[in-house]
Design brief:
The chain has 417 residues and is mainly α. The protein has 14 helices and no strands. The protein is 62% helix and 0% strand. α3 packs antiparallel against α13 and α10 packs antiparallel against α11. It starts with a helix and ends in a 44-residue tail after the last helix.
């Protein structure tokens, strides 16, 4: 499982030969051992705690999962513990929210994930427009999305348009198939479009309109390409199973308007962010980091194109982590040693507890991951016996009943239990 993930990551990051020869295999084995330990220790701890407690209770799965997770995460590399803690906390928070919904503790709010993303985006973009506001990795990710023209000038500035190769200036020169007159006409139109009005405080080199639309168009293309790439990759198993129908299935999958939603989300986010920043400079004749707060909030509503609780929660939790470390750096927040181990263990325990008692409240993708990891064994628990706790444990598998050996039990589907 980890082998293809680590291999692709190493290739994308252009790791050197020494990494592939000496470090790749040990890292794969270490992460595989971590995952295997987590699964094995959970089952072992589950049986041990049942013996200690004398039976099953509503939280009989939480304690075993916590103990197993502490042991497992201690095996994993320290560099990955924070990332794993962040990911599983994302899943755990969503699980707790679903559990609260199913109990009627909270009511579902329309577009709540969009609002959450907008608020988070506003704070991110405020820090993005500040000097030393974000760490390098986060800064690079946001810079790739919206460009660096809105960053404060802390070093010799390279505009996102200036950083393009020189041959890009000809715009249509690479389309040799076009007649010369048409190529020249389109090139002149493009240059006139770029030479529109630009505020003197704007750091981009072309007109504000060109700056907005060109950035939006680029990210729209990237989003659509990414969506199509994901569809092609997820369709590969079908090529092996049903090669005759593969092309027809792939064509139908690609010919859907849904494939443009990710592109529309990214494109509109960049377009709105750039537009609002330019507009505020024109209106106020002033530029400051606060503009990023307003632009980020309004741009965040572009998630209406591509609603995702997962993305909204991840961005929010990552922001909480950034703010916490900023608090530590300024001495306003305490530092807790091994906090990543504790957060990972508690969050995993929440997810495993839900996996036993309330699998219908787990994020579907994470539930499928657990089923793949256990070869569907997690689904083969007799959850009808757990319905007495009132959490509708057998909702996903209402008709499942194990084939018990009558020599050891007299349990029957019709009861009594």
């Amino acid at each position: 499982m980890y082998a293809p993930l680590y291999l692709v990551t190493a290739v994308l990051r252009r790791k050197n030969k020494d990494y592939f020869l000496k470090r790749l295999l040990p890292e794969i084995l270490q992460s595989t051992l971590f995952l295997g330990t987590n699964a094995f220790m959970f089952i072992a701890s589950f049986c041990v705690w049942r013996k200690i407690l004398g039976g099953f209770f509503l939280f009989s799965s939480f304690l075993p999962a916590f103990c197993a997770s502490v042991c497992a995460i201690s095996i994993e590399r320290k560099k990955r513990r924070g990332l794993l803690a962040l990911y599983i906390t994302n899943v755990a928070v969503e699980t707790l929210y679903r559990m609260a919904l199913s109990r009627g503790i909270v009511t579902e709010r329309k577009n709540i994930e969009v609002l959450l993303f907008s608020v988070t985006s506003a704070i991110y973009m405020y820090f993005f427009r500040m000097k030393n506001g974000l760490e390098k990795s986060t800064l690079s990710a946001i810079g790739f999305l919206v460009g660096y023209d809105e960053r404060p000038q802390v070093e010799p500035h390279v505009s996102s348009t200036e950083s393009l190769p020189r041959k890009e200036k000809s715009f249509l020169g690479k389309f040799q198939c076009l007649p010369k007159w048409l190529e020249q006409a389109l090139s002149n139109l493009h240059q006139r479009f770029r030479k529109g009005p630009r505020h003197h405080l704007c750091r981009h080199t072309h007109s504000c309109l060109a700056y907005t639309l060109e950035g939006s168009a680029v990210q729209f293309g990237i989003g659509c390409a990414a969506q199509i790439g994901i569809i092609c990759l997820t369709s590969l198993p079908r090529l092996l199973k049903e090669p005759k129908t593969f092309l027809g299935h792939l064509a139908r999958s690609l010919w859907k308007k849904d494939n443009c939603y990710l592109g529309a989300f990214l494109g509109s986010f960049v377009g709105i962010f750039r537009l609002i920043n330019c507009l505020l400079r024109w209106l106020r004749n002033h530029d400051e980091a606060f503009h990023g707060l307003i632009a980020g909030f309004l741009a965040g509503w572009s998630m209406m194109w591509y609603k995702s609780v997962t993305v909204a929660l991840y961005m929010t939790l990552k922001l909480v982590e950034i703010l916490y470390f900023k608090g530590i750096a300024t001495g306003k927040m305490p530092y807790f040693k091994s906090a990543d181990v504790l957060i990972y263990s508690i969050s995993t325990a929440v997810c495993f507890h839900a996996g036993v008692f309330e699998p219908h409240n787990i994020r579907p993708t994470y539930w499928r991951f657990l089923l793949r990891l256990t070869k569907n064994r997690f689904a083969e628990m007799n959850r009808k016996l757990l319905d007495v706790y009132g959490v509708n444990s057998s909702k996903l598998y209402p008709n499942f009943w194990p084939n018990y050996d009558p020599r050891y039990t007299n349990l029957r589907p019709e009861g009594p239990w």
